[in-house]
Task: structure prediction
Amino acid sequence: MNRVLIAEDLYLLREGLVHLLQAHGFEVVAAVESGPELLRGLLELRPDVSIVDVRLPPTFTDEGLQASLRARREVPGLPILVLSQHVEQLYARELLADGSGGIGYLLKDRVFNAEQFVDAVRRVAAGGTAMDPEVIAKLLAGNARNEPLAALTPREREVLEQMAEGRSNAAISQRLHLSESTVAKHTAGIFTKLGLAPSDDDNRRVLAVLAHLDSRQSS
Amino acid sequence: MLRKYGQVLALLALGVAELVTLVSAFLCLLGTFGLGMVFLLPPQVRMVRWVTGTARRLAGGAADMVIEPPYLPEPPPPQPQADGLYRSHRTLYKTPRLPAWNDRWKWMVTDPATWRDMLWLLLDPVVKAALLPLLVLLPGRGLRLYAAWCELLLAATPASRMAGRLARLNRARNLAVDTQAVEMRRIERDLHDGTQARLVALGMTIGAAEQLMDSDLAAARTLMAKAKEASAETLTELRRLIRGVHPPVLAERGLGDAVRALAMDSPLRVSVEVDLPHRPEAPVEAAAYFAVSELLANAARHGGAESVRIDISGDGPNLRVLVVDDGWGGADPSKGSGLNGIERRLAAFDGVVAIDSPPGGPTTVALELPRVLPEYWAGDIVKLPRWKTATVVFLWSTSWLPLFPQGIVAGAAKALGSQERSWFLALYLPQPWQWPCVAFMILLGTVMYVVAATLPALHNREAYMCQNVPRHVLFP
Result:
């Protein structure tokens, strides 16, 4: 449950991630610095979770993202947390497209908050999702004219944002200082308003919400 | 027929105006160069140009052709120096009026077209008088002949076209350099006032936290938290700055996906279609990207649009971008600075912007960047026609025959006095024909080789010239 692969070309950041994760009880099975190495590592080592930088040598384009997508095509649901200096809805959609969970997409800045970052890594390792608040904000902004979304109360919107980032009811209740039953009531309300089938499985419901936001905008 | 006579009448009426102009132009030139009344020249040139312009229009219209004016582009308005004064040679002026007048004067005098106009004005009455019988009897033929005469002296020459093109290129280059300098200054200012200042503050906060570490741990911790927050803010700002310089998606994915990413972030419903087999060069991508970005922002801000269609495609070596929105239209390039900015950005690539925005919409903006995509994309690397290919293959495969065995080797055999005639054609001929035959064979072989080598090269050159030189310069 805690074998980690790290792909990052900047030495300082790579070492920082290794230390951070080791301090939180993860075993770093490989720390690579280029796209081909990453792909080989993903397919041969099958780590429980991988932390991947989008831009990697040799091309310094989206090497890391491409390697992740390819590995996940061959091993569906292989948990990967993608880190980047900038977040794009385009990349988020590509990562979410297979709908199989175990995926994360965060800004590199989120590493500053070690607790939350490690929490996100654990969530992805367990097959959940961890989406950057900025991605969610953009998704919601793009859905501004979306009718069912406009019908949500401000509180429900907050809960939706937290849920879309990949948090469970318990985590949401903690962050928004609400009781868990209130959060459950809000999520049920959101699902009814968006016309989605309610589900007890945290991961599946996040994917449903993200798919809903995604399809709304591109249609 | 009646129309033809109407045109003839118009030309004859113009002839009267010409005579008046001729006399006054003569007086003006006398005043300018004889008495130093230099102020007489510009009105005189303007007057002559009005007459020749009318003649161009009338004669061209009568003969169904366009006679392009040959004048050099007007000089740009003088730019003030840093101290606000205007320089013209070694004199400084407070207002731009005199330098501008000087520039125009020089422009008129040094343009050969001015003097060609004068020559035409001098000769035209004679030509008209000579053509009068033909114009009256056979107006069609006469008008054509007259148009040919006008074209001889009044049409643009290859040199004037080239000069015009050079002036345009010069201006485009200056514009590109200016735009880049402004951009650099903006980035410098952003880094200086934003990122740099924030990093200084960050360093100070960390320093303060370090000092407090021993005495007041709680306060130090608060400061460190603040420092962490500040570094996150700095990163956000830096990210925004980078996006303005060269968006990361553009570098990572190219124009198509970058525009798609742009479309996703736009509040409008945007559909994107990209039809490019490969990635264009980075500067081209950036220019097209920022143009589309500006247009999208415009559509959202002023256009009242709900949905936008973006179409990016390659047309041979040209890159075409089409942005259509369903807003209320009425976009005016002279009002919006955004459209001007796009024009400036594209000018460096000789790009053009066409806007069609009737009141009530829809607004269509078409951008075209000519010859920015590599030739081989279109797949039409100049192909030789089949007969040429066959000829080249035939020549390469057979030209050794006359040159070596029948030419050089036969000549050598004859020079050495060899009795063996073998299959050397020349040696079977009567004695006096033998040397000419050897020489002919060598010549024939050489010519065949030369033709084989130059045929494809010539073909490519033709195609190359067609694609890269403005048609009218090549075929005046």
Q: What stands out?
A: The mean pLDDT of chain B is 86. The first strand of chain B starts at residue 86 and ends at 88.
